[in-house]
Amino acid sequence: MKVHTIGFTQKGAKDFFGMIKQQGIHTLIDVRLNNTSQLSAFAKKNDLKYFLKELCNCEYLHLPDLAPTKEILKPYQKKEISWEAYEDKFMNLMQRRRIERYLRSEDFNNSCLLCSEHLPHYCHRRLILEYLKKFNNDIQSNHLVNLL
Hints:
Blueprint lengths: L1 E6 L5 H11 L3 E4 L14 H12 L2 E4 L7 H8 L5 H15 L1 H4 L2 H4 L2 E5 L8 H10 L6 E5 L4
């Protein structure tokens, strides 16, 4: 099972939607805490949902249970805690929410997790996949960074 991830920053709409379409992604799963006020207009919930359907024949799904809480995110953004501390807090949150019990593997097949960070290295979308891989070894990650 292949699960893609993508961040919308440092991408124009042409590259962003081009990557989604090129990979044949059927569902974009928005894992952002806030999906309405973003710097890229095409990444706002309603616009994104429209463009995905029209340009890529792709569905849109917002799953805030896969997003960090403000209490975890803000201290990291303000550099009050390290990435390692953030990662630990986020993984504990995923465990407390027990996301594996109500998110079916087939929901993730050929889907794409969306967040804002350009690269997955310091982004919770990568952590989500690492968490889910503990319950399903068949998950293969494909982080979309540049147009192929």
